[in-house]
Specification:
The protein has ten helices and no strands. The protein has a single domain, classed as Hypothetical protein af1432 (Orthogonal Bundle). It is mainly alpha-helical and 189 residues long. The structure holds fe (ii) ion (2 copies). The site of one fe (ii) ion (FE2) has 5 residues, from helix 2.
Length: 189
């Protein structure tokens, strides 16, 4: 893997393909992921690649989204669900279009929205960075930031519990990966 050129290509996509808001968010996730990687012991280059790629397909909507979901062979549950689909799409495209073969990076991108049971340190770093980057401003974000100061698992669990509560309040679809991820972290405290 030629990390240099992959990072350059990803950065150019971030600068040209994302909306202003999403570009600022992505660069915030990159900076936060690098800080968490340093603190909790993950590979900084892998963290940077995953962070830059994680939301590249967040803007896909409607027919374009559904066409992509079908073309890539993703499950039907991702149809009309940009929130759940975009990470899975980004992971596949990161491999196909950018030539990233490292499974850990691809998984960090694929599971950045839901988490899952048995996440690697890199997966947790990207998941948590997405939840607490400086531009994030949602009810409960300060609690997640405080938990992240105590530990990577604490931060991820706080974020997941907040997501579960929020999604259930809204009566929206909650992915089983998030429930299993939270259970796993509780059991392994
Ligand atoms: Fe995302
Ligand atoms: Fe994000």
């Amino acid at each position: 893997m030629e990390t240099g050129s992959i990072l350059e290509r990803l950065m150019s996509s971030v600068m040209t393909e994302l909306s202003d808001k999403r570009r600022v968010h992505t660069l915030g996730v990159r900076d936060t992921a690098l800080a968490l990687a340093d603190r909790y012991g993950a590979d900084p280059e892998k963290a940077e690649i995953a962070a830059l790629a994680h939301d590249l397909y967040r803007g896909l909507r409607g027919e374009e989204l559904n066409k992509t979901v079908k073309e890539l062979g993703l499950l039907d549950k991702y149809l009309d669900n940009p929130n759940l689909a975009h990470g899975k799409i980004a992971a596949i495209m990161l491999e196909k279009k950018y030539g990233v073969e490292d499974r850990e990076i691809l998984d960090a991108v694929a599971y950045h929205t839901t988490g899952r049971a048995g996440m690697s340190t890199l997966e947790k770093v990207v998941f948590l960075a997405d939840a607490i980057e400086p531009g994030r401003n949602y009810p409960g974000v300060e609690e997640v930031r405080e938990a992240a100061e105590k530990g990577l698992d604490e931060g991820c669990l706080r974020s997941m519990l907040g997501t579960i509560e929020h999604v259930q309040d809204q009566g929206a679809y909650l992915d089983e990966d998030t429930i299993e991820a939270a259970e796993f972290l509780k059991e392994n405290k």
